[in-house]
Amino acid sequence: MTKQLISIHKLCESYQIPDSFFEELRQFDLIPFESEADELMIDATILPDVEKIMRLHFDLNINLEGIDVIVNLLHQIEDLKSEIAYLRNRLRLYEDI
To answer: pLDDT (tens digit, 9 = 90+) per residue, 14-53?
Structure first.
């Protein structure tokens, strides 16, 4: 399965945002970037994450330091949800005994 890559330049044109926004995302390591033919690209599967970051930044005026904290907290929440689901499934094994 090949990745569908989206050009950062095309994203900037589509969303009418400055290229510098993605350079800042790169500095904060908020999303993974790939290079193809000397052009920065992102995997299409992370586009919802990028859109979420853009809404936080442009609509809510949250700086990238704050977005970094929010993204890390959201990842921790997802990890905890997975762990809870795993533990609930384990407990179900003992309910039948």
So the answer is: 999 999 999 999 999 999 999 888 889 999 999 999 999 9
Provide φ and ψ at 37, rounded to 5°: 55, 45
The CATH class of the 5-95 domain is mainly alpha
Each domain of the chain, given as residue ranges in start order, spans 5-95
Q: What phi and psi values does residue 55 have, to the nearest 5 degrees?
A: -65, -45
The answer to whether the beta carbons of residues 15 and 52 sit under 8 Å apart is no
The whole-model pTM stands at 0.79
Please report the beta strands in 1-97, taking only residues with DSSP state E, as ranges in sequence order: 5-7, 34-36, 39-43
Helix axes 8-15, 19-28, angle to 10 degrees: 120
Integer Cα distance of 32 and 17 in angstroms = 19
Beta bridge partners of 36: 39
Using CA atoms, how far apart are residues 40 and 6, in angstroms rounded to an integer? 9
Q: Token pair for residue 75?
A: 């990842």
